[in-house]
Amino acid sequence: MRYTKTIIFCLIVSIVNGSSLFIHHEPSPYRVFLFIVNIVIIFLIGRQLERYFFIKKELGTTKLSLIQYSYGLNSTMDGVGITNEHGEFEYVNESHMKMYGYSKKELLQSNWSICYSQSTIERLSSLAMPALDRDGYWRGEADGIRKDGTSFPQEIILSRIKNSKKVFCVVRDVTEQKIAEENIKHMALTNELTQLPNRRSLLLRLHQLMDEADRIFVLFLDLDRFKIANDTLGHEAGDRLLEQVANRLVSFRNEYTSVFHIGGDEFIMLIHNIDKHSVNQVASVIGQVIDKPFYVSGNEISITTSIGISCYPDDHVDIEELLKLADTAMYYAKLSGKNNHEFINNDIKLFLETKSFLELELKKAIRNQELVLHYQPKLALQRNKLVGVEALIRWKHPTLGTISPVEFIPIAEETGLIVDIGKWVIKEALQQISEWEKEGFPLQVSVNVSQRQLKREGELVQHIQACLQQYNVNPKDLELEITESVLENYEKIIPVLNEVKTLGIKVAIDDFGTGFSSLGSLKYLPINTLKIDQTFIKDLEGNKTDLAIVKSIIDVGRNLEIEIVAEGIETIEQLNILKDFKCLYGQGYYFGQPLPPEQFKEKFLT
Length: 606
Ligand code: C2E
Ligand code: MG
Ligand code: MG
What we know:
Blueprint: H1 4-22, H2 29-75, E1 79-83, E2 89-92, H3 94-100, H4 104-108, H5 118-135, E3 137-145, E4 151-160, E5 167-173, H6 175-189, H7 199-212, E6 216-224, H8 226-233, H9 235-250, E7 257-263, E8 266-272, H10 276-291, E9 294-296, E10 299-301, E11 304-312, H11 319-335, E12 341-343, H12 346-365, E13 371-380, E14 385-397, E15 401-403, H13 405-415, H14 418-438, E16 444-449, H15 451-455, H16 457-471, E17 478-483, H17 490-502, E18 506-512, E19 529-532, H18 534-538, H19 544-559, E20 563-566, H20 572-580, E21 585-586, H21 597-605
Parallel strand pairs: 11-12, 14-16, 16-17, 17-18, 18-19, 19-20, 20-21
Antiparallel strand pairs: 1-2, 1-5, 3-4, 4-5, 6-8, 6-11, 7-8, 9-10, 13-14, 13-21, 14-15
Helix pairs in contact: 1-2, 8-9, 12-13, 14-16
Bound molecules: ligand C2E and magnesium ion (2 copies).
One magnesium ion (MG) binds next to strand 18.
């Protein structure tokens, strides 16, 4: 109850007062009247006193709160200000002063517009003021201007103080937040190593260009044999090389050309609104620019690039398809000798179509006896002596003619037909080798084995054992060649390789240097032979990097007691360099091309 204290006070006074008025005197109307007047007066006085103390207490609390609020406002990082109906500051806190670099006095004598540029004032006036009038509240972003003229991004919250024209404003400096946002955006869209826009940027840019440009050429660049340079020189040097490649590519950037680093040694260039002829020229120049030597940590490195090109909208209108086509064209550029560029063309498209046709035909090939083996001699280089042969498959198609394994082995691998084809190859090669042995020509035979065959290890090993027995061939005269790319998951194939080795059969890593293994990983593998890929031998005379790579492979091989075979020897010069490097074995057109068995026998065994 509001006046409890006053009522209790009146009751006490009236008891005291009443007792003095009525205890020793007869109650009379006068005394009763006097008593009531007394009580009313006492009640009124009590009530006033109570009100007085109440207000005093309230004032004390309010004062304390105001002091606390003031401390609070001053200790907040946000700038707080109150403006009157003319927009002039009536209050500013410490942060507000610090944020803008003005003194309290300067601000209290000024209008809020002192804190903004003319264009921001106009924007805020047209956006914030109507919102304040309508909703009593506005929130947004603007650039504030400090006393020294510098600007900073800020978030602003304005609210109209109730029943007045005054505005309460809170300003937050969001410079750091903006920097962090920019950093995150930058990281999300940039390749960390080269600082070039990444794949995500590429997709955004392609989307944007498809709306704006009539034609876009997608150039898919992949460095040739980067992996081996990376493994030989170390990852640090590999990174520096990629940075330098990126720098050279950046020099092509202009209004119509953008460059992206989509990962590893793969870059993409987008060129829009120019004709195919000009793109052709640009691609040639890119090839030349990358072909010039790089200098990394004191080493001269030669590296080349293969480029595949697709065009929007001529080749496709879907982004992923365009990238896939450019990638396929790049793959073709590599196949046709690397350091090359290739537009996606009808041949490549036709290949994609004929693939399904070949697949159907390949199924009939074994049954129809359309597969044959050719044999290429392998020589001991120092003695110039024939020591073995590599069996290489050919497909004699009745209407398409001879089809290269490069064309049909990938299809056979994809479809699983390679398992049966592989079995046929082993059987056929062992039969041939036993025939030659019977005729007095003992030779070792190397057979190429694909990843798919290795996965069905039990079947493979059983089949080999059965064939060795059937043709009475010594296991040491058989070598299985597996391509280096199989070693990507080398832990998985180690058991089957061990099993093969236990039988006494040899294992060779084919096309070494093009794939993923590093020289260091070789010591964990149960292998006997390394075949240096022919691309390294091809440029041996003129390319210092290739020389260094080949020499280090030979040296490591010698240290690990692994036989080294150089593939693709075509000239006496290449042979002499390899002999100088103490490379023991070699194959190549210089000694002889792969030949059918009868011709091979005629040329090399008689
Ligand atoms: P590979 O095992 O590395 O065989 C070497 C390839 O290089 C052969 O091509 C051979 O004809 C060619 N070659 C040899 N010496 C020279 C030379 O001096 N210069 C040039 N430019 N080339 C030379 P081929 O016969 O077309 O075989 C290509 C690839 O197909 C083989 O590469 C091998 O990976 C695969 N292959 C061949 N036969 C079989 C097979 O029976 N099974 C499996 N899975 N793959 C096979
Ligand atoms: Mg081979
Ligand atoms: Mg090879």
